[in-house]
């Protein structure tokens, strides 16, 4: 039995002294109202209305039960309103500061179509973990190795010259003996990729193909790395989406598999489940993650 629904009908009928008016106020048909009251009487163990009277007249037992039924209905209404407010409360989500304004707007619009309200915080990688630890955001996208990730973003090298091949090998950056005094082109790693599963792997390939230690460099910011790319013909380690945004030409690295991985982390399991259920695809597009079609290629 729907106890709250039955009490709602009982209250409306009891206050109006009419099953017809009470049913209308409760938003149900009169036969439904009669069945609900009968079920409630059976549940409580005594009649609530005098069936011999011409109108819906409360019995003594019914008058005793009416105040408690009112409180139950009021509490149920309060619960529904509180649940609606909780669902409307924005879910604070820390995302990479590499996400573009347009991508974030599309993500927010997709969330709203599912009844989710997001408070998006674009911040650097290290700050995302700090915000979670300090309980300043409910959720955050954290970087992890690709084999642990929900979203995987391919990384390659981007520069200012149009590509003439389908990929680039790091060994092609090796400084020849005839140019021993030349500094050599550098590969810049931005703070988002300053993690062991990217940085250390790239360093191992650097050493294996004979590049100089200074040819793989950590950048303090994307803007700083981009300046070096534009002025010195260096290369930026980034995703295809980033390269497009920065008007650079992107190529995959042929002698190393370099990827960013992301998972959704946080302290709010309910919000996390809702985001995963409705926004997995939208988050992937925002991050520039590899699609299933690309995985199969």
TrEMBL record:
Gene3D superfamilies: Winged helix-like DNA-binding domain superfamily/Winged helix DNA-binding domain (1.10.10.10). SUPFAM superfamilies: Winged helix' DNA-binding domain. The keyword Phosphoprotein does not apply. One of its GO terms (molecular function) is DNA-binding transcription factor activity. InterPro entries: LysR_HTH_N (IPR000847), WH-like_DNA-bd_sf (IPR036388), WH_DNA-bd_sf (IPR036390). Keywords: Transcription, Transcription regulation. Belongs to the LysR transcriptional regulatory family. This is LysR family transcriptional regulator.
């Amino acid at each position: 039995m729907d106890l709250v629904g039955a009490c709602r009908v009982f209250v409306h009928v009891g206050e109006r002294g009419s099953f017809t008016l009470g049913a209308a106020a409760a938003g149900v048909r009169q036969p439904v109202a009669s069945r609900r009251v009968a079920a409630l009487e059976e549940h409580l163990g005594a009649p609530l209305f005098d069936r011999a009277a011409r109108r819906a007249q409360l019995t003594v037992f019914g008058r005793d039960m009416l105040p408690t039924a009112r409180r139950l209905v009021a509490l149920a209404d309060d619960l529904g309103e509180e649940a609606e407010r909780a669902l409307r409360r924005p879910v604070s989500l820390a995302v990479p500061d590499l996400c573009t304004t347009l991508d974030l707007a599309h993500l927010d619009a997709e969330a709203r179509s599912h009844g989710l309200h997001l408070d998006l915080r674009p911040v650097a990688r290290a700050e995302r973990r700090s915000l979670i630890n300090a309980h300043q955001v409910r959720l955050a996208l954290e970087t992890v190795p690709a084999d642990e990730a929900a979203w995987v973003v391919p990384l390659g090298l981007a520069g200012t010259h149009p590509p003439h091949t389908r990929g680039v090998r790091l060994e092609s950056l090796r400084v020849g003996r005839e140019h021993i005094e030349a500094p050599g082109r550098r590969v810049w790693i931005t703070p988002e990729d300053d993690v062991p599963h990217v940085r250390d792997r790239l360093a191992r390939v650097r050493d294996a193909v004979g590049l100089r230690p200074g040819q793989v460099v950590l950048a303090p910011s994307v803007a700083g790395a981009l300046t070096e790319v534009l002025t010195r013909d260096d290369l930026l380690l980034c995703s295809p989406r980033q390269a497009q945004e920065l008007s650079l030409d992107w190529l995959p690295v042929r002698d190393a598999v370099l990827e960013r991985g992301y998972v959704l982390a946080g302290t709010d399991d309910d919000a996390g489940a809702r985001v995963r259920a409705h926004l997995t695809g939208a988050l992937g597009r925002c991050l520039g993650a590899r699609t299933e079609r690309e995985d199969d290629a």
